[in-house]
Batch of 4 targets.
Target 1
Amino acid sequence: MRRVFWLSVGAAAGYYAARKGSEAVEQARERGLVGNVTLAASTASKVATTASRATMAVGEAVGSRARTRTGGQPVDATGQAPAPTAPPTAPTSSTREARP
């Protein structure tokens, strides 16, 4: 009985997809080449904008969590506070090579 149920669900889904596909093809024919290219470009732009905003939101959330964890100190790309570095030292005469 389960197989008959899922067979009928699959058949209904296939019929629905075929109808929607036929409608999409008809709309594409009505729009023509320029309309289809314009639609594709605007859709790609919307997807890129959404992805950019999502990436920024995730980056801000990670940065906020990292700053909270490090007590407000700046963090590097891995979310860790940078290790303290020694101040640069001037070269001494013993490190210079002698010229012939």
Target 2
Amino acid sequence: MAAPAPVLVLCSVLSVQTGQAIGKHLFGTVSPAAVVALRLGMAAGLLLLVHRPSVPRRWRDLRTVLGFGTAIAGMNLIYPAMSHLPLGMATTLQLLGPVTLALVTSRKPADLAVAATAGAGVWLFNTPAGATYPLDGILLALASGASMAAYLLLSRHTATGHVDAAPLALALAWAAVLTVPFGVADGDAALLEPRVLLVGAVVAVLSAALPYSLELAALRRLPVRTVGVLQTLEPVAAGVAGMVVLDERLHALQWLAVGCVSAAAAATVVRS
């Protein structure tokens, strides 16, 4: 018996945030670019082996794969962002991408309140002592969010147009082509250490191969709106994963910020 589609999305949320926390744990050994190389390179290899896809013959299908893969590569800007920001904050800023996409396509006055709630969430990430976070990390997380918006649109198109995950395997392969050379250049000999390769394989499965496959399966059975509502739990899952895996602590106001952005995202998706 197949698992209910909402369960697939929730499992995806927990898996990707746990995987990202484990990936950040590698930052003391290799660079964020090297972690991305391990993540996408191994995930692409795994899905290519499982699905054995053929290269699309029509330009329309090839264009979708290239766009899908480019969006996945852009989403991985979350890793250099996490080198500057706590995991929970980086993921919350990333979620603003899909929120903004929904807001700019709406002309309803009530959506201004949703935008204000999301903006309040970002502002609340300043600590009670008034400290701020590096602009580089914030911009990288926001760029990852813009890529996430494109990823959601393209993954829905892929899910409804294909009966298997072959396009996802090809998209991950293209994302690996775009990112692995930078990671290899940054990784030096440490990238080939057995421990790094083993942890990289865990990150590849938990934060890429498994969650992307689960989301694709869920989108065949659920509207994008429902999937989007469930994905608003990602900042909360990231905050918990950051505490458990990385011993990162968010202040009470920062947890309120996570709640604001999650609520804004849920409201936006429902209204859309």
Target 3
Amino acid sequence: MVQAARLAIVLIAAFLGGCGGLSVFDSGVTASLEDPGKSARPPTPPNELPVAHATVQAKLDAHAAPRTLPRAVAQAAEPRGRAYLFRGIAGLIYSLGMDELAQRINRTGVQAGVDTYLMWRGVANQAIRDYRRDPQPITLIGHSMGGDAAVAFAEYLSAADIPVSLLVTYDPSRFADDVPPNVQRYINIYQSLSVMGGGNIISARGFHGHYASINLSAHGEIIHINIEKADGIQEQLVAKIVQIARTPAAGQGEAVPIRYAVPAASAIELWDSGVAVTAQAGDTLQSLATAHHVPIWALTQLNAMSEEATLAGGERIVVPRYLAPKAVAYSPVFKLSLGRP
């Protein structure tokens, strides 16, 4: 039944997108096919954008802030690691945000390459060889079926006893596997109303890492075919990748899994997980939100309480957190990056 559903998704997307993501002539994939001993290389971006994309970009740039990396990224010293990114079905049409993200990661000094989701196993075999030769932090990121592939990649590495520092899925399908226990941090950015995606992936037995699943269904400006292009979200992910080498995966306190839906008028913040704090006599959700520098809506969602709820002394309250200094949050003013360096 699951296989049939997956096949249906493939056929629908192929019909809509012309099967661009299925082509083995993708520049990143071709590099892997020509020389299996080499890691996949990020494709060379086109010299100019298609007319339609250029027009959209011009309108967005007219009211958008300059694209700069967060200060935490700019000041990071010699980040290390390897990042493997995967496009979804019709990826050469709808997953070009993966190429832009890979370029931004490469500019930090972390090695990043892009492939179609169908190629994940060959890339994983090379990743295992590279890690055993020279262990470095591993980041896996995928959009749509590329997200499913990234999870499968993590499972493959788990069987080889290799850790994954960060796993990120952009609107994966509803049939993706669970997050394996070798993943230290997992972030899911999805649209619960998405037909092509909508996957709210859960963790597998034995998973004890940091987990955050972020539902953007209230942000109507973000849909399945542009979710991976959102500039501010990319900036936050790049900041996390740079910080991996100098930020321990084990933060203070228990790593509490968090799932939350970002309100339409609120900035999109990619917290790493939650942490339990103890309410003192006289505390309210508002006072805790102020003390921990988080929006009140996050506490009401994570604790299933109203803003006016009375807290008892000693009560356990979950608060969202970052494991490193806060990255730039994504402004509700929508901005896309369309594959331009």
Target 4
Amino acid sequence: MPIPHLPPEIIDYIVDFLHDDQTTLKECCLVSKSCVPRTRRYLFAGIKIRSERDIRLWAKLSQGDENSLARHTRTLSIYCPELVVEADAGEGGWIRAFSNVESLDVNNGAWPDECPLTPFHGVSPSLKSLRVGPIILPSSQLFYLIRSSPLLEDLTVVGDTESSSDEPSVDDNNPHLEAPGVPVISPPFSGSLDFDIYGGMRSTVRQLLDLPNGLRFRKLTFSWDVEEDLRWITDLVMECSDTLEFLYVSHSSRGVFIWHPHPHR
């Protein structure tokens, strides 16, 4: 029986069954247009933007809120963030069409002070997982992004996020930096925190600790090589002591420490 004559709920069942078979899903779209709407949620669930060609393609496909294919994306990985920021400014904010993203990975970029992460601020109210790095950017840039993601649970930072030379330093009288229009919110942070930060994590940790509702991470992972960071790691561990289930600490010369309350489970 030709697929177009099948009831819609049967077509949906077939497409759902094939959700992890990209090749077959594409063939279904060629067989019948009735398969297209359902397959989009799987074909465009995970998107990687690696080049100017990808940027041009998605800037075009992201036009129109109702018909945008970007609204089907749940995992967005960006490997050329500096090009995306530049293109987003020229195309009228196309990156915001990815409004249902739950996991965002901003990777491989060197960020000058004049190139902010503004296009990603509040890009998706559903964002639960954020990975930034390997990257170089002021810690304030990172926190403007964090504070625009009210449901954020998991955070991974790789690179150097200490304050730039033209930012106010973070000290006991200036725990975090404010930005116009960026409210101070406290995401759930009930998942994992993974820091692989060189150059020191003082500025970043101080801003985390200063969030109004505290931290509730269940998993903490740290790779560090600045001696002063031991203090900030300790502060983070103490802050999460009521919820912590796993701790991994690696130092370039001191070795590795792993803590798990149930190592055999």
